[in-house]
Amino acid sequence: MTQLPAADWLHSPGLARVVTALKTAQGPPRLVGGAVRDSLLGLSVTDIDLATPILPDQVISRLEAAQIKAVPTGIDHGTVTAVASGETFEITTLRRDVSTDGRRATVAFSEDWREDAARRDFTLNALYADPVTGEVFDYFGGLNDLKTRHLRFIGNAADRIDEDHLRILRYFRFLARFGGGKVNSEALVACADGAPKMMALSRERIASELMKIMDLTDPGQAVRLMAENGIFQAFLPEFIGQGPQILKRLIEREQRHSLRASSTSRLLCLLPADVQIADKIAMRLKLSNRMRKDMAALIGGRSICADNIRAFAFHNGLESARDAALLFTGDSDLPAALSQLADWKIPEFPVKGGDIIAKGLTAGPVVAQTIKEIRDSWIAHGFPAGATLGAIVDQYVAAALLASKKE
Question: Rounded to two decimals, what is the model's pTM?
């Protein structure tokens, strides 16, 4: 019998309260999915999901009777969120699919654990565990797949993809997280064949899954396989052929310098370095305004080098500057560029409008223009202070006063 390894989270007060509230004569609810998988792999567990044969309205009643907050977050699909002792747990009634259309499923509630497991995507995500004894229940060979790091769909891969087309992207995300280099050929063929069907998915679901891939420690192999099998064409036709190689180079640089580029920067590796195209993609995928702004800023950093990286950081932030250096600087210039940012704090521009007016300029547009010119020169000279800054201020104020007299 396989058991979960000992872990503090298994003995948390909140989990104990939820398990007690939902225990029946047939036994307690079972841990399921990521908590079981990650625990067996020795990874930290953050999200704890449970499954139960108890119907959703009864789940709510039992939780409330135990003075546990119950939130019907996905009640139509049998999901209730419990908040106990400051901890959050997602509890879902056992289900079976009645019908699917590739985007959503109509489900019926069940009392059969194997039936519930059969509707999940991958064998290593269909592991259940008794939260009291730690006993693991495996219906489709997930334990062996987890041991060998073999990512495999439950049953027929094409059928699982037809149930939810997003599982194509989930396959590559989980491959990058848990795959040991071995690729299931049936899964890969099913993903390639099903890729055009992703056009029916909402852009938000696609973008969420895509950015999760980009945020992994090393999505390089997964992205390469996606490119080779035409996965991007359905939702990212602007994808460039050399993208996987550019991403590989970026990740190698990250590892060499113990840095981590943002998921936005990694996505840019796959796209043309064109602000308008990037903005069009961001709009289509409904990315956040922050991501759209970051993409534009990074593309604007194509000419970045050690000499101008602090100026770029002043306008766009340190994180964006580091990413631009990792993306665009030459191999010989990268260490110097990163060194310019190490332990450097972006200074505040010290000159105010009142300082300029005190030197004789009349309040109005000329003050704003002079401030801009002074700031540009201050940045170009490396953010000086003291006498050097004073000389820059005097130079531009004198020029402004001379110009105003001529008018």
Answer: 0.88
